[in-house]
Amino acid sequence: MVEIVPLASHPHHQAQVTDWLWQAFDRHNGREFFASIVQSSIRHEGLPLTFIALDEGQLVGTVGLWLCDLQSRQDLSPWLAALYVDENYRDKGLGKTLQQHVLTYSRHAGFSSLYLYATFSGYYEKMGWHYIGDGLEYPAKPVRLYHQALV
């Protein structure tokens, strides 16, 4: 059975989470950029937070809850960010489970909304997210913005 826990409870997985984010989201920024993001989110409360999915101790996925994930939209907060599922665990509902964990945590933390952005369409709509328009990722890459009401 997969359990979702804060990365702070298992910090020895920090390097793997960093590598996943670097390889999946933007190899141009450099691994050090993602290492800094992950390091700053190793905590049990407050933001940013990184959660990991473990299957019998094996790291199989990760997701973040960040103050901001899109520089051009600093007016929106907080964000579900950096959702990644190991290739061997894809198409088994783990992405949805990770999203649900962040949604539940966010509700309990008192947030009324949650945002995310993606460069593709179809997946998040199926998960209950509402497309709210377009945005720009640095330097000028178009992205799709999504919202989820928590109250």
From TrEMBL:
The record's annotation in InterPro entries points to: Acyl_CoA_acyltransferase (IPR016181), GNAT_dom (IPR000182), NAA80 (IPR039840)
Q: What PANTHER family does the database record attribute to this sequence?
A: N-ACETYLTRANSFERASE 6 (PTHR13538), N-ALPHA-ACETYLTRANSFERASE 80 (PTHR13538:SF4)
- The organism's superkingdom is given as Bacteria
Domain (N-acetyltransferase) spans 2-150
* Record-given protein name: GNAT family N-acetyltransferase
- CDD domains xrefs: NAT_SF (cd04301)
